[in-house]
Design brief:
five-stranded antiparallel β-sheet, rod-shaped, 406 residues, 23% helix, 4 domains
Amino acid sequence: MKYAKLYVIVWLIVSVRLAAIGQINNVFPDSGNAIIYQGTSSFRSYDVINSNNFLVSRLEATTDATGQLWLRDAQGNYKIAFRSNSYPSSVDGELIVGKYTTTSTGRNLFVDGTSEFTGKVFGHSSFQLSQGPDDFVAYEVLNKDNIIVSRLESTTDASGQLWLKDALGNYKVAFRTNQNPSSIDGELIVGKYQATSTNRNLFVEGTSEFTGKLYGGSDFEIRQASSGFRAYDVVNRDGVTVSRFEATTDASGQLWLKEALGTTKVIIRSNGDSYFNGGSVGIGSINPSHKLDVNGTIHASEVLVDLNFPGPDYVFEEDYPLSSLSEIEAYIKQNKHLPEVPSAAQMKEEGVNVIEMQMLLLKKVEELTLLLIEQNQKMEKLNIEKNIEIEILQNKVKQLENLVNN
């Protein structure tokens, strides 16, 4: 009986010792629950060893209140980290949710099914929504009351279209890669985040570049820059500025158009002189051939023209070859217009140079004046001669009367 009690005591001591050794070495059974006891370090660990007794992965967890869990690979690199504190959890590799697969999806995060995000979603790479049972991809944004406030849709065919709808299903944004235009129903602010309305359909904060034509059915406004004027550069396809459009931002109301070298070509002022430097201006004409081409009527209260050639005062020189009335008469009978004056057909075909025509008409008036003076001189000479003849005749009549009376 004495030895039996001693045997029981020895057996209990050995059993307790073996149990302690099993706890220290963290040897887990093949079935049932397993517990990882805290070792001498500040975390718990569980090694996964293959049939060749090689370490293939290691599971670790903190033993304090931080609540962290790690999974390492055979080289000790952290692959998965779950944290309950302020530090983020992370996965080094691919994470597939809702579907088991042993092949790569080519995505860091792959969700097979419905996903719900109650906060912000950030990504430095692609964000892809796979095709559902409909013919488009959909992503719904719900508020805290589980009400849809917006919906993002995309076609799954080759048309390449993307829509953003509001809560009522109205299209607000449409991006298209086919021949149909993209559109935005509302305001678009580029280069600046702003929650308040700018009262502009398109508002760009910073430099803008247009490689095609720019159309607008309303106002186009360039805001004031730091240099005190508004500027709009026209750049060619090689990135070289070919012209510059500037305007003052104060009350002076000035507008400039400069060429590539910075030379001002056009200045328009609301409180001073405006001018055009070089080139031609066409009003009603897209291909002006003169400094100013106007296809229409010009109305003015006064016109002042500078002469680039002398007036026809040379007509009054002594050696001027003045044509006689008979010569002019013969010319008119043959040509049906005055000498040097273009015909009606020529004026219709070539137009009329106003200043040249004015000078030509003045020349004809001066020639006519000389002819009238000449005719007046002849008439006066004839009148004198007739008066002399009349006086002679009257004297002869008196002489005859005297002879008859005597």
